[in-house]
Each structure stands twice: as C-alpha cells, then as structure tokens.
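Notebook entry, structure prediction.
Reason for the run: the old model in the group folder had no record of what sequence produced it. Starting over properly, with the input documented here first.
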Amino acid sequence: MLIESRRRAYLNAMQVVHWLPRAELPFAAPSRPQLLLPVAALEEPAFEPQEQAPAPASVAPSAPLVRSGERPKIEIPRPGSTPKVTAKAVDEAEKPVVARPAPVPPPRFALQLLRAGNCLLLVELATGEPLQSRDPSYLLLKDMLRAAGLPDSPQIIGEPVRWPLLVRGNLDQGPQAATDFVQGFIQARLEEAPCVCLWLIGLPAVRFAGEADAEAYYRELPVEGLGAAWALPGLELLMDEPQRKAHVWQAMRRLMARWKPSNE
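New structure, fully documented this time:
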C-alpha cells in the first residue's frame, strides 16, 4: 500500500493533474466534492446559419485542440522506421552499377637470349634457371643449331628476362607490359648487333615477343621492330613429344636460306 505522500509524488512525476480512484484508497486524503460533479453539457446555439461559407484555400487547417488534462502526443522516430527518401538517393539508386574489371594477374616466365651466328635465339627457361652445358634441353638446342648449319655453342646475351619484375608494388605487370618489356629488350640487342632471323623457342617467347600463340608454331612471323621471327615449341615440349621434331626439321629446311644463303 502507498501512503498519500508517496502516491502524489508518483502522480506528479507522471504529470497527472486530475485523477479519481476506482475504489476507496486506504490512508488517502478525502476526495474533493467538486470533482465528482458531472460536466455540464455545452449549450447549443439558438439558430443555425443558413449557409456555411467555405473556408479560404489559403488558410491552413487548425491544429487539433488538446483537452485539458491530456498530454500532447509527440512522434519519436523509432529504430527500423522507414527513412525519408531524398531525390539524391533516388538518383544514386537508379544509376547503373558499373562492374570493375577484375585485375589480370601478371604472367610468369623466364627467357634467355642467345646468339648463334647471325641469328638470335629467345629460349624459354622451363625451370627458371639458366641453361647448363649438361642439361638435356641444352643438348637438344645444340643438335638443332648443328642441323641448321649454325654454331652449336651459342653466346649468352645478358641475364635471363624474368617476369614479373617486382613481387610487390603498384607497377603494371600485366601481359601488355610484359610484351613491351620483352620486345624493348630484344630491340636494344638488335641495335648493338642486327640478326637475320629471331628464333622464338617456347610459348612465352612466342607470346610476348612475337605476339602470337601456339598455333604459330613452325611458322615465320613478321614482328614490327624485330624483323622476321620463327616460332618453335619449347625445348621441354620437344623432348616430351618427339614427333614434333619432324615438323621443326621441315620448317627449318624452308627457312634455312635466311641464315645460309649458299645452302639450298
């Protein structure tokens, strides 16, 4: 049970001005008789107007009256309520979503440039390591040079070209950048000593120096800035698939006149 002082404190905290109990409260103060009287009805007007004038359009509707003793309702935004949609938000939602192209990973390869007579050879290093004199792939290359009538001890020119150049960084190292780098490297060597034919041995050499693919094997390719080039399978592929050697020999016989004019 609440005593009168505590009950009034609760009512004041809730901003309740007038209240009536539904039953007699123990320890409550006596009720005031004037609060129990019925509310007098409003007197109706003696006459009704014949015609009600329309309200002017410019006058805003009056706010609803608040009865005494009632607290005005205040709209408070609640979580999860629908936010206002502005014109800017609608425009941004209607804009088409442009998908960004996925970044192309840089190609990975290692190439070694050699010179044999008046020909340059760009050879794929399948293992990434320089050619060794006892490697089966290097012995196969020596056999191919002897069959072509060229010196079988080619001269190594510079360090191997390894791609990508950098492990980290924002430098573009995509396929086009690799092509530009490899072609620029060969052009610099051609300015030092020209050649009559560039052998492209291996798919990376064909792709990034000759701008072709595996379908160009055994064919002669005119490459802008590099001259005539001959596309060949890689040395490892020739050892794994010996039947390809016959196609190499047939193409070599057609092109041999380029570096051996006296040989028919």
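Summary: Residues 175-192 form the longest helix (18 residues).
The old model has been moved to the deprecated folder.
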